[in-house]
């Protein structure tokens, strides 16, 4: 396997790794938010009602409802914060990005080397063409001289 092929494969693998990392992170975060929403929808109703009834003994109905709503909001913020931290680490993502960038740089160097080789080959072809053109001119000159010499009548007759 050539060095350039290896670098391209490395580049593709790094891109795939980054895509998988992004997908897993999004999946874990979405699952955490869904779990938080399920908790809120299924369990919070009865808990809120129980808390509200217990707070009614010490506070007015408006204050009791405000305290229950504040507790609900605090729970939701904590769950969303925890969910945002789940999944692959930032170090794993940084490593995959570093490998990708390194592969891009190496492929770019290879492309530049190929360009230089093509330019060198083009210059060599031009040089060969110039040499062939000069040689063809010399051959034409000698052929025309030979044909003129062959057409002249002999001088002695």
As for the number of domains, it is: 1
Q: Count of helices?
A: 3
The general outline is: rod-shaped
Q: Which class best fits the helix and strand makeup?
A: mainly alpha
Give the strand content.
under 5%
As residue ranges, the low-confidence spans are none
* Mean pLDDT metric: 84
Cα Rg: 41 Å
Task: Report the major sheet.
Answer: none
Helix content: over 70%
Would you kindly provide a written description of the structure presented here, covering whatever features stand out?
With 157 residues, the protein is mainly α. The chain has helices at residues 3-56, 61-85, 90-151. It has one domain. The protein is built from three helices and no strands. Helix 1 packs antiparallel against helix 2 (61-85) and helix 1 (3-56) packs antiparallel against helix 3 (90-151). It is rod-shaped. The mean pLDDT is 84.
What distinguishing features does this structure have?
single chain, 157 residues, mainly alpha, 3 helices, 0% strand
Short structural summary:
The chain is mainly alpha-helical and 157 residues long. The chain has 3 helices and no strands.
Question: How are the SSEs ordered, and which strands pair?
Answer:
Layout: H1 3-56, H2 61-85, H3 90-151
Helix pairs in contact: 1-2, 1-3
């Amino acid at each position: 396997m050539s060095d350039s092929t290896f670098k391209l494969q490395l580049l593709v693998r790094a891109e795939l790794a980054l895509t998988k990392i992004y997908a897993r992170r999004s999946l874990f975060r979405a699952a955490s938010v869904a779990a938080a929403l399920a908790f809120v929808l299924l369990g919070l109703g009865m808990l809120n009602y129980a808390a509200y009834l217990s707070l009614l003994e010490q506070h007015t109905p408006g204050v009791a409802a405000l305290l229950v709503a504040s507790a609900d909001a605090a729970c939701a913020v904590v769950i969303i914060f925890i969910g945002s931290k789940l999944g692959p680490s930032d170090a794993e993502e940084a490593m995959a990005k570093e490998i990708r960038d390194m592969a891009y740089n190496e492929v770019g160097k290879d492309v530049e080397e190929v360009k230089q080789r093509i330019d060198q080959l083009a210059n060599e072809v031009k040089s060969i063409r110039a040499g062939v053109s000069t040689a063809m001119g010399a051959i034409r000159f000698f052929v025309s001289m030979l044909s003129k010499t062959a057409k002249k009548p002999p001088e002695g007759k």
